[in-house]
Design brief:
With 157 residues, the chain is α+β, with helices and mostly antiparallel strands. It is built from three helices and nine strands, in the order αααβββββββββ. The strands form two sheets. A six-stranded antiparallel beta sheet has the order 3-4-8-7-6-5, with no helix packed on it. A hairpin with a 5-residue loop joins strand 1 and strand 2 (79-82). The chain binds zinc ion. Residues 73, 75-76, 78, 122, 124-125, 127 line the site of zinc ion.
């Protein structure tokens, strides 16, 4: 019986350890200096992802994109959005009513251009993705308005 209890304790510690490790991997930050980012991104990607630029509406590669799969951060490959929550907002930017997981997105108040908006960033590398607006469809009522250039697409198998 004592042996059995010891075994259970070892098992719990092992499982807990793995779980903790999984969580750390998911939220492990990707940090690079701006000069490192400049060498691994194209100049257009750098302008949006690191300098918070906005691509022209109706010009990006994903606003009309309808394939099934996952959209990942173009800077660090972190899975951010699923095609399941993508919808046509008519704005000319890829729009989603939810992220894969709320924790994958950072929200930041943005007072630029004389407006109060919510900027959204990749939680792993803090690259700029776009903005969050409260005019999305049900069930969330949210619109994650994202620059195509901030995303890469991984087609579902
Ligand atoms: Zn990222």
């Amino acid at each position: 019986m004592r042996y059995f209890s010891a075994l259970i304790i070892v098992l719990i510690i092992t499982l807990y350890g793995q779980d903790k490790q999984g969580l750390e991997t998911m939220t492990k930050k990707v940090t690079k200096s701006e000069s490192e980012w400049a060498t691994c991104l194209t100049s257009d990607e750098y302008r949006v992802l690191r300098e918070k630029g906005t691509e022209m509406a109706f010009t990006g590669k994903y606003y009309k994109h309808k394939d099934d799969g996952k959209y990942v951060c173009a800077a660090c490959d972190f899975e951010l959005f699923s095609s399941n929550t993508k919808y046509d907002s008519g704005t000319g930017w890829p729009s989603f009513y939810a992220a894969i997981d709320k924790d994958r997105i950072l929200e930041k108040r943005d007072n630029s251009l004389g407006m109060v908006r919510t900027e959204i960033l990749c939680a792993r590398c803090e690259s700029h993705l776009g903005h969050l607006f409260p005019d999305g469809p049900r069930p969330s009522g949210l619109r994650y308005c994202i620059n195509s250039i901030s995303l890469d697409f991984k087609k579902a198998e």
